[in-house]
Amino acid sequence: MAIIERDLAPRLRSLAAQFPAITVTGPRQSGKSTLCRALFPDHDYTSLEAPDVRDFAREDPRAFLGQFQGGAILDEIQRVPQLPSYLQGIIDADPAPGRWVLTGSQNLALIESVSQSLAGRTAVLHLLPLARSEVVRFARHPETIEQAILTGGYPRILDQQLDPAEWLAFYIATYIERDVRLVSNIGDLALFQRFVELCAGRTSQLLNFSQLAGDCGISQPTARAWFSVLEATFIAFRLPAYSANVRKRLVKMPKLHFHDTGLACRLLGIRSAGHLRSHPLRGPLFESWVVSEILKHRCNAGETGHLYHYRDAHGVEADLVIDRAGHLTVLEARAAQTPSASLFDSIHRVRAALQPHHPCDALVTYGGQTAQPRSDIPLIPWNRLHERQWM
Fold this sequence. Notes:
Blueprint (H helix, E strand, L loop, with lengths): L8 H8 L4 E5 L6 H8 L4 E4 L3 H9 L1 H6 L5 E4 L7 H11 L6 E5 L2 H11 L4 E5 L5 H4 L9 H7 L3 H5 L4 H20 L5 H12 L8 H8 L3 H13 L3 E4 L15 E4 L2 H8 L4 H5 L4 H19 L6 E5 L5 E8 L2 E8 L10 H10 L5 E7 L12 E3 L10
């Protein structure tokens, strides 16, 4: 695989100089192992996916860790959740920074294990699929918004110029058949796959568990539990509603978004740019692409949280509100490719509602190619979004 510089690399290097252990989480195939091996070439490397390695680590964890006198990269650490407990004593005996690099693709299991055993001893970072700022470092990369949405951000697709629909079909099958079993005891995997597909059809929509459960034929508690699995494995996330100190009746329900729009497209059966161009979910997929882009940018810089959506009881809404220590940035994502005054209708009303309470600026990003630096609200083309600082 070609090695491109990942946006997370500077922060990973910096924290490795401060903490004895670094924990890197993220979805499977997001490039965690490639990144860590590139940044720490002198570290021993072992993957706990291999059954013999995993058995050794489970049966004799002290001997397993003892073979790495200088530290190591321990890949898929969540497969042996007791290992961090044994690592704690080794780190306390020699807390030299950067000796241990742990990676894992299941957030709940990994964070629970690490937080109990390595609190204060490890920094935790998240490596999500490629952001646009990373995608453009490949010699060949998507040039249109439809191709960008369809391709998504899994590195192997871009590195090897693979057909996204074909590769992601195998990814989904592997995810359902193997990864989901490791996170939750789900008996009916076919019904779970139907649930994931229904979630893809609701990307950028309010996350209503009652409706989702009814459409899937499961109970509401089951829908909540299954969505937690999607969050734990970095497939989907919820964007909370903004509600601080505004004298309006606001919707409190979060929105559902996918981390990778290529994966959402595959689940929806969208296989070509032409199909996406005429698809009724083109707008919601564009919105999820924009929100996930900004989430990745902030995550790569070490900033998590403080992202919201806004919607009041009259349907006035903004796709994203970024709260930067009380200064708000309101963003609207519109898939239209032609600039027009109508792109700004909703965001003017949202900014007017928020400005009496907080300093607030606003912008619109759209599916076209031309920037328009208007005096009040700039219009940013989709392919320039990554050039802005979102911190």
